[in-house]
UniProtKB/TrEMBL annotation:
<protein>
    <submittedName>
        <fullName>Chromosome condensation and segregation factor B</fullName>
    </submittedName>
</protein>
<dbReference type="InterPro" id="IPR036390">
    <property type="entry name" value="WH_DNA-bd_sf"/>
</dbReference>
<dbReference type="Pfam" id="PF04079">
    <property type="entry name" value="SMC_ScpB"/>
</dbReference>
<keyword id="KW-0963">Cytoplasm</keyword>
<dbReference type="GO" id="GO:0051301">
    <property type="term" value="P:cell division"/>
</dbReference>
<keyword id="KW-0131">Cell cycle</keyword>
<dbReference type="InterPro" id="IPR005234">
    <property type="entry name" value="ScpB_csome_segregation"/>
</dbReference>
<keyword id="KW-0159">Chromosome partition</keyword>
<dbReference type="InterPro" id="IPR036388">
    <property type="entry name" value="WH-like_DNA-bd_sf"/>
</dbReference>
<keyword id="KW-0132">Cell division</keyword>
<dbReference type="GO" id="GO:0051304">
    <property type="term" value="P:chromosome separation"/>
</dbReference>
Amino acid sequence: MENKKKISLIEGLLFINGDEGVSLEEVSIFLDISIDESEELIVLIQNKYKKDLECGLELQRFAKNKFRMITKKENSEYYIKLANLKTESRLSSASIEVLSIIAYKGPVTKADVENIRGVNCDNIFYKLKLRNLISEVGKSNDVGKPTLYNVTTEFLKYFNLNSLEELPKLKESNISDKEIFNRG
């Protein structure tokens, strides 16, 4: 397989994994190549985005050995404007569903929320973070140390709450979380 195809596949993998990022080991397994070759391809991608002044994305290394796509820092003032515009629009029912799960069960991982809802929540998490309604509050002790999320003070402002204690109490039920949010 040519490097162009491998780079294309890695970019797709980075997009799919979003903020969770991708490790060199995962790239190595995904493409069935060595760790060294994985790192060489990642460096090529980093340089590609760094040189492309028309592209608003770059590759960020974090947690020593993981990589994720992020927006270029020099454009941040524009994204802040977008965040302000977004907060003025209404939340979708799916966003409210995700916020409810995080508010009642937080801190919680995205995978936990997706397990309860039974659907991928990447886009919703992205939008809720952009609107500053949820934030990363740490790492879980589970395998892979996934990010934990909780609602923010902006969430409290948005729903006119003083604290999470003011959320309506859930009734005791024998129905599982999955059954509550199951759309099937």
